[in-house]
Amino acid sequence: MTRLGFLLARTLRNETALQRLSVPQSELLTALRGKSVALVGNARALAETDHGARIDAADLVIRINRAPMPQPASHGTRTDWLALAVRLSGADRARIAPSCTLWMSPKRKRLDWSTATSPGFYLHPLADYQALNARLGAPPTTGAMMIDLIARSQMARLELFGFDFFASLSLSGRRTAQEVPHDFKGESEWVQELMLADRRIIRH
């Protein structure tokens, strides 16, 4: 697809055309099979931990949005996959340097050409977003969408770091829980249910 074709498909919300840029979800799920996965959220409280070595020891390290990494001791240094719902600056893209970029947001007009043509690009299906939205009764966070996706795979283990559901706010912004459209209490309860049902999922 040309850049002009991409811009046209994005403007017209031509989901079929945009999906042609994406690796199939089945390919992503296959890549997760048998892997230990570290999913790193952006809670400020993570900066007060020493989880960095454990994060980097995972087979696959997935970070979210601008992926702040204030220090290796707490956050580690690796990023294999990056799950996005925001546009990245060129500096952030170079700093994070993921091998695979996943666009999780249903807001296709935010999707930029650099992301859509990056290696291993994945476009999260709108139907998956809508199903989780209905389950939670509110728009899911990028982290929740990733948990939902990974939990459906045959991964060996999913460890969650930096997920306190906005209790300590986010390292990547200044907004409070009341200023964002998510139900953090609902997401916390949902994740707790997942962990009780699936012992492969651990939250630190």
Automatic annotation (TrEMBL):
Gene3D superfamilies: Glycosyl transferase family 29 (3.90.1480.20). Pfam families: Glyco_transf_29. It comes from the Bacteria. Keywords: Glycoprotein, Glycosyltransferase, Membrane, Transferase, Transmembrane, Transmembrane helix. It is a single-pass membrane protein. It is found in: Endomembrane system; Membrane. InterPro entries: Glyco_trans_29, GT29-like_sf. This is Glycosyltransferase family 29 protein. It comes from Paracoccus methylovorus.
